[in-house]
Structure formats: structure tokens, C-alpha cells
Amino acid sequence: MMNGQSYAVEIEHIIRDVFSCDRFGFGGVANSDFIRSKPFIAIIAALAYQFAVAGENQRGQIENFIEDKSFYSDFSIDELLSFETSEKVIDGINVDIGFLSGGEAIKKLSRILEKLLSDKEKTRI
Q: Going by fewer Cβ within 10 Å, which terminus of the chain is more open, N or C?
């Protein structure tokens, strides 16, 4: 299983490709340290950039992703990885992340991000 920094670096490379920048580019959002603590913000930034040039279908997919996955905006990568199963009690509240584990959640979110960013249907410019 990968550790939190490994997942963050994986997402960093995706985001750096989007913004054509080095790891400290785009105000530090493309940096694995930022991504590790706030992965959803970094993912949304990359998708916002893509949204600007996306066609109608891809825009809908991006909007659906943001709406469907906004639950994860409250979690750092390490917090997600602390879920060894789909459920965990946090502050007396049972939280279900909807995946078999936190690692699976991060992998799936990463794959969806890559798919949304690789969609070449761009009709707006």
C-alpha cells in the first residue's frame, strides 16, 4: 500500500501537467505537500481549468464529479488513509467514505481526475 506522500506526488504530477508548471507553480497548489493536506482543493483547481475549455458533455461530467465527491473536501490524504475499511467513528459519529478503504478512495478519485482531464472534447475557446 502507498503512503500519503506517494499518493500526493501522484496527484501532483497530474496537476503539474494541467498547469504546465513545476511543483511550486500555481501558488503552491501543484505541490505534493499542499495536495496531501487539501487534495480536493487541488483537484478542483485542475478541473476548473479544464472546465473553461470543455465542451458541454465534459462540463457536465466535471460538475457531476464535484457534486458527487464534495464529501471528500473535508479530508486530507492521511485522514482518508486512516480508513482501513469503509467506516470509521470520528468524534462519536460513524463516517462512511463509500469505498472499501481510504486507499481505494484516493486511487479512485485520482483515476476519475485523470479521465476527466484526458477527455479531448473541447469545443469552447
A: C
Instruction: Give the number of domains in the chain.
Output: 1
CA distance 41 to 39: 6
Is there a domain that residue 38 lies in?
yes
> How far is the C-alpha of 65 from the C-alpha of 47, rounded, in Å?
10
What is the reported pLDDT for 121? 56
Rounded-to-integer distance, Cα 40 and Cα 20, Å: 19
Question: What is d(CA 14, CA 16) in angstroms, rounded to the nearest whole number?
Answer: 6
For 70-101, what is each residue's pLDDT tens digit? 999 999 999 999 999 999 999 999 999 999 99
Question: What length does the chain have?
Answer: 125
Could you list the residue range(s) of the whole structural domain that residue 32 is in?
4-118
